[in-house]
Amino acid sequence: MVLYGKSGTGKTYILSRILNDAIGQQLNAVYIDLEHQYGSTVALSAVTVTTAATTAAAMAGSTNQHKHVHLFRPCTDMDVLGLIYGLEKWFYDHSDDINVTWVMIDGEWILGDQHHGHQGQGLKWKLIEKLKQLQYHWPFALIYTYRGNETTDGAQKAFHGRQEYRFDCYKQDQAICMKLVPPSSSNHAYSVDDLKSMVTII
């Protein structure tokens, strides 16, 4: 699923709420922090975090099986490529001691993707597609953020043809609102009243 909205609409905050809930239940999560926002939204002192100086070191296995959050912070295009081509091995290597419940991708990847502004191109989208392939082998939930404008037309254009549930995130006064938007391929016929009721306020 995807959290969609412009900057400042609470997407990272929502991820942090989900992550803290997972930690409270002692569930394992992989958190891929593309814009290095993790420390500003999740209290590192309250969370046991697996991290490494580089993504390469983390992929090589510098993790701790007793930790619940496995944090990857790529700094270069090569780091992101390392994730794309190394995550499958990481899952295999840790399948005996880590049962990953959530995989979260937060932020946009600016470096190598600055010339690929539309959906389906760039390293971030290759990473997302790779994780979707891995879901056939490991039953984790994938959630990622996407920064875009709040118009319905903009969202429909960005996610045309993608088979996933989307939450449009926006601010109403000081509250964070999430509106569920089912994929266009959904067989269920939603009425106008159904769609209005799909708004959650945090």
UniProtKB/TrEMBL annotation:
Tree of life domain: Eukaryota
Name of the protein in question: P-loop containing nucleoside triphosphate hydrolase protein
The organism of origin for this protein: Absidia repens
Taxonomic lineage from the root: Eukaryota, Fungi, Fungi incertae sedis, Mucoromycota, Mucoromycotina
